[in-house]
Design a protein that fits this description.
heterodimer, A: 303 residues, mainly alpha, MetI-like fold, globular, B: 286 residues, 13 helices, 73% helix, cell membrane (chain B), transmembrane helix (chain B), MetI-like_sf (chain B), membrane (chain B), transmembrane (chain B)
């Protein structure tokens, strides 16, 4: 038994050699950090390092500190709310765009709209922040200059707690409108064309065909994506928020990730930050596993 | 008859909406470009904003490039994008190929090792501590090594390799080719379009990368483009005198935005097909 296993391994030795760099990478930069989570249960001391730092007393000290701090509910509410807003407001536009593109019979026009609308997906949040400044900032933004021209008061979109979440949701929709439509378009391409033929013979209008053929045809994909997005609820968009936010909007924009980043890497409070990070990862893991098993029931899972 | 009319209305509405979608994407970028090129004199004369400048000036770009931070950041970003993508692709292919072949003992375990990291990871702080412990802080390698392999791309590339016809491998093996040769001479060349697509995503990731730098780099001379551009965007607007050759802060800022996005915008239309293909394959796999 062992001999045959040994012979098998020897037979595939070239494969193991190929795997080696990847395994080393995963061991060091993916799995050692998972071991590093222990500092959430320790009082991390930079000189002592991860292994030799003393254990926290009691072990849940940092979790308790976080739970009792005013940040707990604020961060949780912001994280979940921003995710939810993005989910709710961001879901419909790509579907609508995909339907319209699918109905478009003028090929060059369709290609142009696709090319343009996919592009923002490849722009970094720094670039989008620049675009938002020139559109929305209080002193130089064109929107506010137009408001002033019509006699209104300038609106501090980027620094007001009332507007900031709308800016987050709006810019996210702008970035992913076209890109999000791709998957629905691919699903629509798989709909049996004889269905449309039959409907046309029966005299159905295009709106009716969209309602009775196209949308039901992509229903599974819509539900699947929705479920999978629910699994990502704890990720409200770290990059976007960190790059766009500022101290004025912390009360409505600070999420778990941004707080962990500041607390750990700016205030050097590693153990507390790691504890909050772990809290987030565990909830995130549960959500993903839950949503995947739900998705599997619906049809197909993520792998 | 009624159907003809309904069709016309439908077309009118849908084409209008599609045109609006196109405009909403492109107009903000054109406005950024316009701001970056508008001479201050014209802004003053118009009292605020100019949509279409009558004259254009490259003053802001000259000022931007005369500041050594931007050219240096540009070099760093180019280096990270080129070298980083090469490393990404090499390591991803080396991992994906054996995982795509059946029969190797331990294959499922290694596959699990990759997939698990998509579900759970150490998080920001422990990852930072490990990167620090491996001595990468304040080196350009901190921008490359900690993200050398994206698990998702391993799964996508593994899917490509799995779809190659098995007979090719068999006949190569019968001809006595060893596994490295099969990988380099058969599997990789046959998957070039797919590998290119994955390479594009890695490259865009490097070009746009921001977080690795603010986490691991404190030495300003190593800042990549996105970080420097963000710093420029954080500058507050300077009150301007009425000197006509002044470059207002916002003009400078927008020239930086154009500078940092131009390579993407210039390359993107030609490669869009590959990106889209990658997205579709990725979502079927994923």
């Amino acid at each position: 038994m062992l001999r045959t296993l040994g012979r098998q391994i020897w037979k595939y030795r070239a494969y193991y050699l190929m795997l080696l760099p990847g395994i080393i990478y995963y061991a060091v930069y993916k799995y050692l950090p998972i071991y590093g989570i222990v500092i959430a249960f320790k009082d991390y001391d930079m000189l002592a390092g991860i292994a030799n730092s003393p254990w926290a007393d009691p072990w849940y000290k940092h979790f308790q500190a976080f739970y009792e701090s005013p940040y707990f509910s604020q961060l949780l509410v912001n994280t979940v709310l921003i995710s939810l807003y993005k989910l709710v407001f961001g879901m419909f536009p790509p579907i609508a765009l995909a339907v319209l593109l699918n109905e478009c019979r003028v090929d060059w026009f369709k290609r142009w709209v696709q090319t343009l609308s996919y592009m923002p997906h490849f722009l970094s949040w720094v670039i989008i922040y620049g675009i938002l400044i020139v559109l929305l900032s209080q002193d130089s933004g064109i929107v506010n200059q137009l408001i002033a021209e019509f006699g209104g008061n300038p609106i501090p979109f980027l620094t007001s707690t009332e507007w900031f979440r709308s800016v987050l949701v709006g810019s996210e929709i702008w970035q992913n409108l076209g890109w999000g439509a791709i998957i629905y378009l691919a699903a629509m391409a798989g709909i049996d064309p004889t269905l449309y033929e039959a409907a046309r013979v029966d005299g159905a209008s295009r709106l009716r065909m969209i309602w009775h053929i196209t949308l039901p045809g992509i229903r599974n994909v819509i539900v699947l994506l929705l479920i999978l997005r629910l699994g990502q609820m704890m990720d409200a968009g770290f990059d976007q928020i960190y790059i766009l936010y500022n101290i004025h909007v912390y009360p409505v924009a600070d999420i778990l990730d941004t707080w962990v980043f500041r607390t750990g890497l700016e205030q050097w409070n590693f153990s507390l930050a790691a504890a909050v990070g772990l809290f987030k990862s565990v909830i995130g893991l549960l959500l993903v596993l839950g949503s995947n098993s739900l998705a599997k029931k619906w049809g197909e899972g993520i792998w | 008859m009624v159907r003809g009319l309904e069709d016309k209305i439908f077309n009118a509405v849908s084409y209008t909406i599609l045109a609006l979608v196109g405009l909403v994407t492109v107009v903000p970028l054109l406005y950024v470009l316009s701001v970056s090129l508008t001479p201050y004199a014209e802004v003053l004369k118009n009292g605020g904003y100019v949509l279409f400048p009558k004259e254009i000036t490259f003053n802001a770009y000259e000022k931007l490039l005369s500041n050594s931070a931007i050219p240096r950041a540009f070099q760093i970003t180019i280096f990270v994008t080129v070298v980083g993508t090469a490393i990404n692709l090499t390591l991803t292919a080396l991992l994906a190929y054996p995982l795509s072949r059946k029969g190797m003992p331990g294959r499922r375990l290694f596959l699990f090792m990759v997939v698990f990291t998509l579900l759970f990871n150490g998080g920001i702080i422990p990852t930072y501590l490990i990167v620090k412990a491996t001595g990468l802080i304040d080196t350009v390698w901190a921008l490359i090594v900690p993200n050398a392999i994206w698990s998702f791309n391993v799964l996508v590339m593994k899917g490509f390799f799995e779809n190659l016809p098995e007979e090719i491998f068999e006949s190569a093996r019968i001809d006595g080719a060893h596994e490295w040769r099969i990988l380099l001479r058969i599997a990789v060349p046959l998957s070039i379009p797919s590998i290119m697509t994955i390479g594009l995503f890695y490259a865009v990731g490097h070009w746009n990368s921001f977080f690795a730098a603010i986490m691991y780099i404190t030495d300003r001379s190593l800042f990549p483009l996105q970080v420097v551009v963000r710093e420029i965007l954080m500058m507050t607007q300077q009150p301007l005198e009425n000197a006509e050759d002044m470059v207002p802060t916002v003009t400078m800022q927008m020239s930086a935005v154009i500078f940092a996005s131009l390579p993407i915008i210039a390359v993107y239309p030609f490669l869009q097909k590959h990106f889209t293909k990658g997205m579709i394959i990725g979502s079927i796999k994923g």
